[in-house]
Amino acid sequence: MSPWAIFYVVPTPLGNLQDISERARAVLADVAWVAAEDTRHTAPLLKHLGSRAKLLAAHEHNENAAAGAIMARLAAGESVALVSDAGTPAISDPGARIVAQVRAAGGRVVPLPGPCAAVTALSAAGLEAAQWLFYGFLPAKSGQRQKALEGVYDAPYALVFYEAPHRVLDTVADMARVLGAARTLVIARELTKLFESLHSLPLGEALAWLTADANRQKGEFVLLVSGACQTKAAETAEAERVLRLLLAENLPVKQAAKLSAAITGGNKNALYQRALAWKG
Ligand code: SAM
After folding, report:
1. CATH topology for 7-115?
2. Binding site membership of 161 for ligand 1 (Cβ less than 6 Å)
């Protein structure tokens, strides 16, 4: 009986074919089978890479059956690579159940590092977060979405969400409602593609920014939001910005501090002390 062959987990480009790694190329060219989320989507990639691997379907609706088929091939000594449509399998994509079953059966699973929208976005978001939380997709219904957001309100980590274009406005509105207007939102759109864009702004301004130009609502999105501990700093910065504006209008220190606190929710006494220090 031949020993089990290797089961590879292979990330594929998010949009730019040059982002495939040398190792991913070699594996996809070498394996007997490629288990793909959508075989029609993956066939052109294999052709582009000169791979002659046979394709089998492994999507969210057939994961258990696919796991059985994959294990039969591995047991027969035929290597298999798992790919999703784009990025890393099992990250908001099918694959976790198959990987678990192969490993539980004693098979060897070899993961390759590679493209992932969350990590790609985070690398350029500039959120200076030591920790981050990958949430993936929020629920599609607003009530459930708001509940889910309440669940991460206190999390002291940068929050990373995936979102589809037809839901981005509603999601951003719910984020501002639940997480507050002061947090920084980074909108990372169409990463690695022709219309790639990254834009940072306070959550409270995001809806207006997105609706100002329909093109800003198109494509694929990663939404990153500063975490709870970062919110405090952002709120203080906002309160001080407003305070500075009011003082520039020659309002008395006490009144400016009071108004800034009322507008931004900042601490009146702290703002008063800050204004005195500036004046001094
Ligand atoms: N497994 C993939 C990964 O590793 O990133 C994610 C798959 S998930 C089904 C697809 C979601 O990822 C999209 O709806 C979007 O939120 C995000 N995404 C994928 N490609 C992207 C891109 N080029 N730019 C921005 N977000 C992207």
Report:
1. Cobalt-precorrin-4 Transmethylase; domain 1 (3.40.1010)
2. no
